[in-house]
Amino acid sequence: MHATEDLAEADRLMRICNACRYCEGLCAVFPAMEKRRSFAQGDLNYLANLCHQCGACYFDCQYAPPHEFAVNVPKTLSKVRSGSYGLYAWPRALAPLFERNGLAIALVAAFSVAAFIFGFAAWTDAGVLFSAHHGEGAFYRIMPHAAMAWLFGAAFLYAVVALVMGFRAFWADIGAGGTRPQGLSVWQAIRDAGRLRYLDGGGVGCMNEDEQPTDMRRHYHHATFYGFLACFASTLTATFFHYAFGWEAPYSWYSLPVVLGTLGGIGLVVGPLGLMRAKKTRDKTMTDTSRFGMDVAFLAMLFAIGATGLLLLFLRATPLMGTLLAVHLGFVFGFFLTMPYGKFVHGLYRFGALVRYAMEERQGYPVPAPKRRAA
Ligand code: SF4
Ligand code: SF4
Questions:
Q1: Shortest-distance Cα residue to atom 3 of ligand 1
Q2: Which of 78, 134, 252, 342 could be disulfide-bonded to 288 (CB atoms 3.0-4.6 Å)?
Q3: Which residues of the chain fall short of a pLDDT of 50?
Q4: Cis preceding linkage at 91, omega within 30
Q5: Where are the domains of the chain?
Protein backbone atom coordinates (compact mmCIF):
# COMPACT_ATOMS: atom_id res chain seq x y z
CA MET A 1 0.00 0.00 0.00
CA HIS A 2 1.27 3.45 -0.86
CA ALA A 3 0.41 6.75 0.75
CA THR A 4 -0.73 8.46 -2.46
CA GLU A 5 -2.29 7.51 -5.79
CA ASP A 6 0.78 8.84 -7.59
CA LEU A 7 3.11 6.51 -5.67
CA ALA A 8 0.78 3.56 -6.32
CA GLU A 9 0.72 4.37 -10.03
CA ALA A 10 4.52 4.72 -10.14
CA ASP A 11 4.80 1.33 -8.42
CA ARG A 12 2.52 -0.22 -11.05
CA LEU A 13 4.52 1.29 -13.91
CA MET A 14 7.90 0.29 -12.50
CA ARG A 15 6.71 -3.32 -12.26
CA ILE A 16 5.64 -3.25 -15.91
CA CYS A 17 8.89 -1.58 -16.97
CA ASN A 18 10.91 -4.05 -14.94
CA ALA A 19 9.38 -6.87 -16.95
CA CYS A 20 9.78 -5.06 -20.27
CA ARG A 21 13.18 -3.30 -19.92
CA TYR A 22 13.04 -1.93 -23.44
CA CYS A 23 14.16 1.55 -22.25
CA GLU A 24 17.16 0.49 -20.18
CA GLY A 25 19.62 2.39 -22.37
CA LEU A 26 17.79 5.72 -22.27
CA CYS A 27 18.76 7.09 -18.86
CA ALA A 28 19.72 6.18 -15.29
CA VAL A 29 16.15 5.51 -14.12
CA PHE A 30 15.79 2.13 -15.80
CA PRO A 31 19.14 0.59 -14.70
CA ALA A 32 18.38 1.79 -11.14
CA MET A 33 14.89 0.28 -11.39
CA GLU A 34 16.30 -3.05 -12.58
CA LYS A 35 18.30 -3.40 -9.35
CA ARG A 36 15.02 -3.59 -7.43
CA ARG A 37 12.25 -6.16 -7.26
CA SER A 38 9.81 -4.09 -5.20
CA PHE A 39 9.33 -0.35 -4.86
CA ALA A 40 8.85 1.27 -1.47
CA GLN A 41 8.10 5.01 -1.21
CA GLY A 42 11.81 5.86 -0.89
CA ASP A 43 12.68 3.84 -4.02
CA LEU A 44 9.99 5.63 -6.03
CA ASN A 45 11.07 9.06 -4.77
CA TYR A 46 14.65 8.17 -5.69
CA LEU A 47 13.69 7.09 -9.22
CA ALA A 48 11.41 10.12 -9.64
CA ASN A 49 14.21 12.53 -8.75
CA LEU A 50 16.59 10.65 -11.02
CA CYS A 51 14.23 11.23 -13.97
CA HIS A 52 15.10 14.34 -16.04
CA GLN A 53 11.72 14.40 -17.84
CA CYS A 54 13.19 14.08 -21.33
CA GLY A 55 10.11 12.17 -22.53
CA ALA A 56 11.99 9.58 -24.60
CA CYS A 57 10.53 6.60 -22.75
CA TYR A 58 6.99 7.84 -23.38
CA PHE A 59 7.48 8.12 -27.12
CA ASP A 60 9.34 4.79 -27.29
CA CYS A 61 6.79 2.88 -25.22
CA GLN A 62 4.60 0.29 -26.91
CA TYR A 63 2.38 0.27 -23.81
CA ALA A 64 1.70 4.04 -23.73
CA PRO A 65 -1.95 5.16 -24.06
CA PRO A 66 -4.17 4.16 -25.79
CA HIS A 67 -2.75 0.76 -24.83
CA GLU A 68 -4.66 -0.64 -21.86
CA PHE A 69 -1.48 -0.65 -19.72
CA ALA A 70 -1.47 3.17 -20.07
CA VAL A 71 2.23 3.47 -19.29
CA ASN A 72 3.27 7.11 -18.92
CA VAL A 73 6.54 7.15 -17.00
CA PRO A 74 7.51 10.86 -17.42
CA LYS A 75 4.17 12.19 -16.20
CA THR A 76 3.88 9.78 -13.29
CA LEU A 77 7.45 10.30 -12.08
CA SER A 78 6.95 14.06 -12.44
CA LYS A 79 3.96 13.88 -10.08
CA VAL A 80 5.86 11.72 -7.60
CA ARG A 81 8.84 14.08 -7.80
CA SER A 82 6.72 17.16 -7.10
CA GLY A 83 5.02 15.35 -4.22
CA SER A 84 8.39 14.44 -2.71
CA TYR A 85 9.42 18.09 -2.27
CA GLY A 86 6.83 18.75 0.43
CA LEU A 87 7.70 15.47 2.13
CA TYR A 88 11.24 16.65 2.90
CA ALA A 89 10.47 20.31 3.66
CA TRP A 90 12.03 21.77 6.80
CA PRO A 91 10.40 22.80 9.02
CA ARG A 92 7.50 20.45 8.24
CA ALA A 93 4.97 23.18 9.06
CA LEU A 94 6.04 24.99 5.86
CA ALA A 95 5.46 21.96 3.60
CA PRO A 96 2.05 23.35 2.47
CA LEU A 97 3.99 26.11 0.66
CA PHE A 98 4.59 23.53 -2.08
CA GLU A 99 0.85 23.50 -2.70
CA ARG A 100 -0.25 26.48 -4.79
CA ASN A 101 3.46 27.25 -4.96
CA GLY A 102 3.19 29.80 -7.76
CA LEU A 103 0.93 32.02 -5.67
CA ALA A 104 3.11 31.61 -2.56
CA ILE A 105 6.31 32.55 -4.41
CA ALA A 106 4.62 35.50 -6.16
CA LEU A 107 3.34 36.87 -2.84
CA VAL A 108 6.75 36.56 -1.12
CA ALA A 109 8.47 38.20 -4.12
CA ALA A 110 5.95 41.05 -4.25
CA PHE A 111 6.18 41.59 -0.48
CA SER A 112 10.00 41.57 -0.55
CA VAL A 113 10.22 44.08 -3.40
CA ALA A 114 7.62 46.33 -1.75
CA ALA A 115 9.44 46.09 1.61
CA PHE A 116 12.73 47.25 0.06
CA ILE A 117 11.08 50.10 -1.84
CA PHE A 118 9.22 51.33 1.26
CA GLY A 119 12.26 50.69 3.44
CA PHE A 120 14.51 52.78 1.21
CA ALA A 121 11.88 55.52 0.98
CA ALA A 122 11.46 55.60 4.78
CA TRP A 123 15.14 55.48 5.80
CA THR A 124 16.87 57.26 2.95
CA ASP A 125 16.57 60.94 2.23
CA ALA A 126 14.68 61.46 -1.05
CA GLY A 127 17.49 63.70 -2.32
CA VAL A 128 19.97 60.85 -1.80
CA LEU A 129 17.66 58.09 -3.07
CA PHE A 130 16.90 59.80 -6.37
CA SER A 131 20.36 61.22 -7.07
CA ALA A 132 23.15 59.84 -9.21
CA HIS A 133 26.01 58.37 -7.18
CA HIS A 134 29.52 57.64 -8.40
CA GLY A 135 32.61 55.89 -7.15
CA GLU A 136 33.31 53.35 -4.42
CA GLY A 137 30.55 52.82 -1.87
CA ALA A 138 27.82 54.34 -4.11
CA PHE A 139 25.34 51.55 -3.24
CA TYR A 140 25.96 51.96 0.48
CA ARG A 141 24.84 55.58 0.42
CA ILE A 142 21.38 54.09 -0.21
CA MET A 143 21.63 51.11 2.15
CA PRO A 144 24.52 50.71 4.62
CA HIS A 145 26.76 47.75 3.88
CA ALA A 146 26.39 46.34 7.39
CA ALA A 147 22.58 46.29 7.12
CA MET A 148 22.79 44.61 3.70
CA ALA A 149 25.29 42.00 4.91
CA TRP A 150 23.31 41.11 8.04
CA LEU A 151 19.95 40.94 6.29
CA PHE A 152 21.08 38.85 3.34
CA GLY A 153 23.51 36.80 5.43
CA ALA A 154 20.67 35.80 7.79
CA ALA A 155 18.27 34.94 4.95
CA PHE A 156 20.94 32.92 3.13
CA LEU A 157 21.96 31.09 6.29
CA TYR A 158 18.33 30.15 6.96
CA ALA A 159 17.96 28.88 3.38
CA VAL A 160 21.13 26.77 3.68
CA VAL A 161 19.99 25.22 6.99
CA ALA A 162 16.52 24.43 5.57
CA LEU A 163 18.03 22.94 2.40
CA VAL A 164 20.52 20.80 4.33
CA MET A 165 17.75 19.48 6.59
CA GLY A 166 15.60 18.72 3.56
CA PHE A 167 18.45 16.93 1.86
CA ARG A 168 19.09 14.82 4.98
CA ALA A 169 15.45 13.74 4.96
CA PHE A 170 15.66 12.88 1.25
CA TRP A 171 18.90 10.96 1.68
CA ALA A 172 17.42 8.88 4.49
CA ASP A 173 14.13 8.28 2.62
CA ILE A 174 15.86 6.91 -0.48
CA GLY A 175 17.58 4.34 1.70
CA ALA A 176 20.98 5.99 1.74
CA GLY A 177 20.93 7.06 5.41
CA GLY A 178 24.02 5.66 7.13
CA THR A 179 25.97 5.36 3.87
CA ARG A 180 28.70 7.83 3.11
CA PRO A 181 29.05 9.08 -0.47
CA GLN A 182 32.49 8.22 -1.82
CA GLY A 183 34.56 10.83 -3.59
CA LEU A 184 34.42 9.05 -6.96
CA SER A 185 30.62 8.74 -6.80
CA VAL A 186 30.26 12.41 -5.96
CA TRP A 187 32.61 13.31 -8.82
CA GLN A 188 30.59 11.13 -11.21
CA ALA A 189 27.38 12.86 -10.07
CA ILE A 190 28.98 16.32 -10.53
CA ARG A 191 29.93 15.37 -14.09
CA ASP A 192 26.49 13.95 -14.88
CA ALA A 193 24.71 16.98 -13.37
CA GLY A 194 27.11 19.45 -15.01
CA ARG A 195 26.48 17.93 -18.46
CA LEU A 196 22.81 17.15 -17.81
CA ARG A 197 23.71 13.74 -19.15
CA TYR A 198 20.22 12.28 -18.74
CA LEU A 199 18.38 15.17 -20.35
CA ASP A 200 19.44 14.00 -23.79
CA GLY A 201 16.64 11.52 -24.43
CA GLY A 202 19.08 8.69 -25.00
CA GLY A 203 21.12 10.84 -27.42
CA VAL A 204 18.50 12.55 -29.58
CA GLY A 205 17.27 15.33 -27.27
CA CYS A 206 14.04 16.13 -25.44
CA MET A 207 10.77 15.08 -27.03
CA ASN A 208 8.16 17.70 -27.93
CA GLU A 209 4.59 17.65 -29.17
CA ASP A 210 5.76 17.72 -32.82
CA GLU A 211 7.72 14.51 -32.08
CA GLN A 212 10.89 16.28 -33.21
CA PRO A 213 13.49 15.82 -30.45
CA THR A 214 15.68 18.84 -29.74
CA ASP A 215 18.54 19.70 -27.40
CA MET A 216 17.30 23.26 -26.80
CA ARG A 217 15.82 22.44 -23.41
CA ARG A 218 19.21 21.18 -22.27
CA HIS A 219 20.96 24.30 -23.61
CA TYR A 220 18.52 26.63 -21.82
CA HIS A 221 18.87 24.60 -18.66
CA HIS A 222 22.65 24.98 -18.93
CA ALA A 223 22.30 28.76 -19.40
CA THR A 224 20.13 28.98 -16.27
CA PHE A 225 22.31 26.71 -14.14
CA TYR A 226 25.65 28.23 -15.08
CA GLY A 227 24.14 31.72 -14.99
CA PHE A 228 23.10 31.08 -11.41
CA LEU A 229 26.56 29.74 -10.53
CA ALA A 230 28.25 32.76 -12.14
CA CYS A 231 26.03 35.15 -10.14
CA PHE A 232 26.84 33.26 -6.96
CA ALA A 233 30.58 33.40 -7.79
CA SER A 234 30.22 37.14 -8.48
CA THR A 235 28.74 37.69 -5.02
CA LEU A 236 31.49 35.61 -3.38
CA THR A 237 34.29 37.49 -5.15
CA ALA A 238 32.70 40.86 -4.33
CA THR A 239 32.48 39.83 -0.67
CA PHE A 240 36.13 38.76 -0.78
CA PHE A 241 37.16 42.09 -2.36
CA HIS A 242 35.23 43.98 0.31
CA TYR A 243 36.59 42.21 3.36
CA ALA A 244 40.06 41.19 2.16
CA PHE A 245 41.07 44.39 0.34
CA GLY A 246 38.55 46.97 1.55
CA TRP A 247 37.40 47.60 -2.05
CA GLU A 248 33.77 48.71 -2.04
CA ALA A 249 31.19 48.11 -4.78
CA PRO A 250 30.32 49.13 -7.41
CA TYR A 251 33.32 47.74 -9.28
CA SER A 252 34.65 48.55 -12.71
CA TRP A 253 33.26 46.90 -15.85
CA TYR A 254 36.32 44.67 -16.18
CA SER A 255 36.53 43.55 -12.55
CA LEU A 256 35.92 39.87 -11.77
CA PRO A 257 32.64 40.40 -9.86
CA VAL A 258 31.15 42.50 -12.68
CA VAL A 259 32.29 40.15 -15.48
CA LEU A 260 30.89 37.14 -13.59
CA GLY A 261 27.71 39.04 -12.69
CA THR A 262 27.18 40.16 -16.29
CA LEU A 263 27.63 36.65 -17.69
CA GLY A 264 25.44 35.24 -14.93
CA GLY A 265 22.75 37.87 -15.49
CA ILE A 266 22.64 37.09 -19.22
CA GLY A 267 22.34 33.37 -18.39
CA LEU A 268 19.48 34.08 -15.97
CA VAL A 269 17.61 36.07 -18.62
CA VAL A 270 18.18 33.81 -21.62
CA GLY A 271 17.86 30.47 -19.79
CA PRO A 272 14.49 30.98 -18.04
CA LEU A 273 12.98 32.62 -21.15
CA GLY A 274 14.08 29.65 -23.25
CA LEU A 275 12.80 27.14 -20.72
CA MET A 276 9.42 28.90 -20.67
CA ARG A 277 9.29 28.69 -24.44
CA ALA A 278 10.36 25.04 -24.38
CA LYS A 279 7.60 24.36 -21.84
CA LYS A 280 4.98 25.59 -24.32
CA THR A 281 6.09 23.16 -27.01
CA ARG A 282 6.21 20.06 -24.79
CA ASP A 283 3.68 17.33 -25.25
CA LYS A 284 1.13 17.99 -22.48
CA THR A 285 0.21 14.31 -22.20
CA MET A 286 3.58 13.51 -20.62
CA THR A 287 3.87 16.54 -18.32
CA ASP A 288 2.31 17.22 -14.92
CA THR A 289 0.41 20.43 -15.61
CA SER A 290 -0.80 20.70 -12.01
CA ARG A 291 2.66 21.99 -10.99
CA PHE A 292 2.86 24.56 -13.77
CA GLY A 293 2.68 27.41 -11.22
CA MET A 294 5.72 26.15 -9.31
CA ASP A 295 7.81 25.89 -12.48
CA VAL A 296 6.75 29.30 -13.79
CA ALA A 297 7.28 31.04 -10.43
CA PHE A 298 10.82 29.66 -10.21
CA LEU A 299 11.73 30.69 -13.74
CA ALA A 300 10.09 34.11 -13.32
CA MET A 301 12.03 34.72 -10.11
CA LEU A 302 15.36 33.85 -11.75
CA PHE A 303 14.50 35.99 -14.76
CA ALA A 304 13.59 38.93 -12.52
CA ILE A 305 16.89 38.64 -10.62
CA GLY A 306 18.91 38.48 -13.84
CA ALA A 307 17.03 41.29 -15.60
CA THR A 308 17.03 43.71 -12.64
CA GLY A 309 20.69 42.91 -11.97
CA LEU A 310 21.65 43.81 -15.54
CA LEU A 311 19.51 46.96 -15.46
CA LEU A 312 21.19 47.99 -12.22
CA LEU A 313 24.59 47.40 -13.79
CA PHE A 314 23.85 49.52 -16.86
CA LEU A 315 22.03 52.32 -15.01
CA ARG A 316 24.08 52.39 -11.82
CA ALA A 317 25.46 55.85 -12.53
CA THR A 318 22.01 57.41 -13.09
CA PRO A 319 19.36 58.68 -10.61
CA LEU A 320 17.47 55.39 -11.20
CA MET A 321 20.10 53.45 -9.25
CA GLY A 322 18.32 53.71 -5.86
CA THR A 323 14.99 52.42 -7.18
CA LEU A 324 16.62 49.64 -9.20
CA LEU A 325 18.72 48.61 -6.21
CA ALA A 326 15.53 48.27 -4.10
CA VAL A 327 13.78 46.17 -6.75
CA HIS A 328 16.81 43.94 -7.39
CA LEU A 329 17.52 43.38 -3.70
CA GLY A 330 13.82 42.64 -3.14
CA PHE A 331 13.84 39.87 -5.71
CA VAL A 332 17.10 38.41 -4.39
CA PHE A 333 15.80 38.50 -0.82
CA GLY A 334 12.52 36.87 -1.84
CA PHE A 335 14.47 34.19 -3.70
CA PHE A 336 16.59 33.41 -0.64
CA LEU A 337 13.48 33.07 1.52
CA THR A 338 11.71 30.76 -0.92
CA MET A 339 14.70 28.65 -2.05
CA PRO A 340 13.83 25.73 0.26
CA TYR A 341 10.12 25.88 -0.65
CA GLY A 342 10.11 25.98 -4.44
CA LYS A 343 11.49 24.38 -7.57
CA PHE A 344 15.05 25.20 -6.49
CA VAL A 345 15.06 21.98 -4.44
CA HIS A 346 14.81 19.87 -7.59
CA GLY A 347 18.50 20.49 -8.31
CA LEU A 348 19.52 19.38 -4.84
CA TYR A 349 17.47 16.18 -4.80
CA ARG A 350 18.38 15.28 -8.36
CA PHE A 351 22.05 15.67 -7.47
CA GLY A 352 21.50 13.43 -4.43
CA ALA A 353 19.80 10.84 -6.65
CA LEU A 354 22.74 10.97 -9.08
CA VAL A 355 25.19 10.41 -6.23
CA ARG A 356 23.11 7.46 -5.05
CA TYR A 357 23.01 6.06 -8.58
CA ALA A 358 26.80 6.37 -8.96
CA MET A 359 27.24 4.61 -5.61
CA GLU A 360 24.97 1.75 -6.70
CA GLU A 361 26.86 1.43 -9.96
CA ARG A 362 30.23 1.27 -8.18
CA GLN A 363 29.39 -0.63 -5.02
CA GLY A 364 26.35 -2.65 -6.06
CA TYR A 365 22.85 -2.57 -4.65
CA PRO A 366 22.14 -2.32 -1.79
CA VAL A 367 25.13 -0.08 -1.09
CA PRO A 368 27.04 -1.64 1.86
CA ALA A 369 26.98 0.39 5.07
CA PRO A 370 30.40 1.62 6.26
CA LYS A 371 32.15 -0.78 8.63
CA ARG A 372 32.16 0.39 12.24
CA ARG A 373 35.08 -0.19 14.59
CA ALA A 374 34.42 -2.65 17.40
CA ALA A 375 34.04 -0.87 20.76
S1 SF4 B 1 8.38 2.78 -20.67
FE2 SF4 B 1 7.30 1.22 -21.88
S3 SF4 B 1 8.80 0.47 -23.35
FE4 SF4 B 1 9.94 1.54 -21.75
S5 SF4 B 1 10.51 -0.04 -20.27
FE6 SF4 B 1 8.56 0.84 -19.58
S7 SF4 B 1 6.99 -0.48 -20.46
FE8 SF4 B 1 8.89 -0.88 -21.59
S1 SF4 C 1 11.48 10.76 -19.14
FE2 SF4 C 1 13.60 10.52 -19.84
S3 SF4 C 1 14.80 10.67 -17.93
FE4 SF4 C 1 12.67 10.24 -17.32
S5 SF4 C 1 12.52 8.02 -17.14
FE6 SF4 C 1 11.90 8.54 -19.24
S7 SF4 C 1 13.78 8.38 -20.47
FE8 SF4 C 1 14.40 8.49 -18.31
A1: 61
A2: 78
A3: none
A4: yes
A5: 5-363
